Amino acid sequence: SQCPCLQSPDGMKKIPSTKRETAAAFLKKVAKEFGFSSNGFSVYQNRNKTGEIVSQNKTLSLLKIKHGDMLFLFPSGPSTSPGEVMDTVQEDEIDQYLAKQDGKIYRNKDPQLCRHGALGKCVHCVPLEPFDEDYLNHLDPPVKHMSFHAYLRKLTGGADKGKFAALENISCKIKSGCEGHPPWPEGICTKCQPSAITLNRQKYRHVDNIMFENHTIADRFLDFWRKTGSQRMGYLYGRYTEHKDIPLGIRAEVAAIYEPPQNATQNSLELVEDPKAAAVDEIAAKLGLCKVGWIFTDLLSEDTRIGTVHYTRNKDSHYLSAEECITAGYFQNQHANPCRLSRDGHFGSKFVTVVATGGPDNQVHFEGYQVSNQCMALVRDECLLPCKDAPELGYAKESTPEQYVPDVFYKDLSLYYNLTGRYAFVCPQDFHSLATYLSQCTSTAFLDIVSDFHLLLFLVTNEVMPLRDSIGLLLDAVKTSNEDLAQTWKKSEQWATIEQLCGKSPAPLSFQVQWADSLPALWVTGPWVALRFPSPPQPCGPASTVPS
């Protein structure tokens, strides 16, 4: 026998069970032990409400539930009344800031249409709401989808002031604990059956603009493809800021690209386990950065003499493959957007996808994507699969005895949304490669050379002399762009030892940073989202780019 522990709002209890016991039988025991009715609760393997245990005939051993495992029980039904905010949810700083802004679109007096005095207002000059569709459609370029915070203003506006507004996350799973019939596949009812999903265009977007802090960060990311012909993937680190070109808009500013361990070919990418993942996030946090998205190449050289590439992603083929949509959905579910208006404490995601691929002018273009909340739900609940012989196409799974899958319909043939650095270089593998890198920068300011994400990661994680406990001052210098602070750390014993290990004498280090112009705002046309960017300064082939 075994006894998994159930943690609930009312305390913790052990539920006696066996390895061969089915999930359905186990959930009946849970309902009896805690005094719940048929579908009054859900049980998850993780505290963040992932890994739900649904009523099915799979055994606990197949679900990898062992003696002493901690499971988490959450009562079903709204814990708050509609429109009531959950004050315990810590929203992102940008969301807290935008929630306090007025958001209205102010207009000047029209000299031809306005017939009132300087202090008066009329229909031709009264401020507009941030979700005004006519205003958004007349911007250049037109914005077909309002910002997420404009959508929230629309929900919480009107006479009832959002009293009945609530953001509900989509679920494609059978509700657990229903006792009026045998568990699926022997039985199902309207109380526990998930609703059918009709794919339609999302009215809002969580991110309105993406910008790289400078062209170097993207240019160096492309170097791997230029040198090997193989595709490449990286995580985008940066911050979310206000995008002032769109009412209550959000911009993802990319400051660094971290390239994790991966197996790459000309046509595929496979992520492998990254032992440095925790250290990367720790360094990023100390620099004031967070993971805002991921980027991959899909490039095929056309003419190496002039640096052109093939234009493969277009309306006649695809903009984003099903495999890539599923991967984007997976990442977005991992980085859910904290939201007080959802009783789950999260809604949607601000995690973006960027693709470096050939454009219509046969130059490298950066295109970005973000899948809709509907796609996120289909991916999270394992309902969406790519076609084996055509990975750009996908399909919804059929129901099986192990899993019920709701019907999925669509209204539009177009399933895509179209939207609109400083620390980057090839990560040193040893002190010899670090010495080579430093020798190439003999006339640069020290702060500029250490403002490199992969360099900082090497200093923290190298096996000869890891500086995890003594690099705090340097990280503060990079975060605040403080040259004096960087020079103070440069005089430390740690840096002197690093220089000795590199076999080089101290020398000033620097390179010139060129700042990129702002990139255009995103615009949208379907349940999946795509950001459009202009070509980067350097010309840089196709990939079925999905982590395994």
Protein model, in words:
By secondary structure, the chain is of the alpha/beta class. Among the domains are: 5-75, Ubiquitin-like (UB roll) (Roll), CATH 3.10.20; 204-416, Cytidine Deaminase, domain 2 (3-Layer(aba) Sandwich); 431-503, no CATH class. Helices cover 23% and strands 21% of the residues. It has 15 helices and 26 strands. Strands 9-11-10-14-19-20-25-24 form an 8-stranded mixed sheet. It has a 5-stranded mixed sheet with strand order 2-1-5-3-4, covered by helices on one side. A 3-stranded mixed sheet has the order 12-13-26, with no helix packed on it. Strand 21 and strand 22 form a beta hairpin. Helix 7 (277-286) packs across helix 12 (453-461). Mean pLDDT is 81; it is low at 78-82, 420-427 and 504-548. One of its GO terms (molecular function) is ubiquitin binding. Belongs to the NPL4 family.
Which runs of at least 5 residues are low in confidence (pLDDT < 50)? 78-82, 420-427, 504-548
Would you identify the CATH architecture of the domain at 204-416? 3-Layer(aba) Sandwich
Shape: globular
Total helix count?
15
Strand segment count: 26
Share of helix among residues?
Answer: 10-25%
Q: Quick one: CATH class of the domain at 204-416?
A: Alpha Beta
C-alpha termini separation: 35 Å
Global structural class: alpha/beta
Strand order of the largest sheet: 9-11-10-14-19-20-25-24
How big a fraction of the residues is strand?
A: 15-25%
Q: Rg, please?
A: 26 Å
CATH superfamily name of the domain at 204-416? Cytidine Deaminase, domain 2
**CATH fold group of the domain at 204-416:** Cytidine Deaminase, domain 2
Round the mean pLDDT to the nearest integer and report it: 81
Taking the sheet with the most strands, its summary is: 8 strands, mixed
